[in-house]
Design goal:
alpha+beta, three-stranded antiparallel sheet, two-stranded antiparallel ribbon, 2 helices
Length: 138
């Protein structure tokens, strides 16, 4: 009886390990196929931000903003809401570039709270209330 239970637990453990590997492989494939191209395009837009902000602005594969100045890596809390909105705009433009390439004649952008676009901006600290539509010709 004990051996049967032990064998069952080993089988379940093996199933869990296989499932974890499949989920990790699927996540890595999604990152490779969908997220890396957006981050690559974001690099095109972030140059101006980095020059303006006096440090390197980057977005990791979870779309969290990182800011490096004087060799010290900091979180997005060191950027103003306006700076975060500009980073969010660059992420959107990168996404549009990946999705549509040169096929886009115009884009419609909606500017909401930074917390709608960037995962680490706490919604309760984001006091922007307005909703604006912007049409940008490309």
């Amino acid at each position: 009886e004990e051996n049967r239970k032990l064998d069952e637990y080993r089988r379940i453990k093996g199933d869990i390990e296989k499932t974890k590997k499949l989920v990790k492989d699927a996540y890595d494939a999604i990152v490779e196929r969908y997220i890396k191209p957006v981050l690559s395009k974001f690099d095109h837009y972030r140059g101006t931000l980095s020059e303006t902000y006096g440090g390197d602005v980057s977005v990791n594969r979870n779309f969290n903003v990182e800011f490096t100045a004087n060799g010290i890596k900091r979180g997005q809390e060191h950027l103003s809401k306006g700076q975060l909105a500009a980073v969010g705009l660059c992420v959107k433009l990168a996404l549009i570039d990946v999705l549509y390439g040169d096929k886009t004649n115009f884009i419609v952008l909606d500017c909401r709270k930074a917390s709608d676009y960037l995962p680490d901006v706490p919604r309760e600290q984001d006091d922007r209330k307005d909703l604006t539509c912007v049409f940008v010709c490309k």
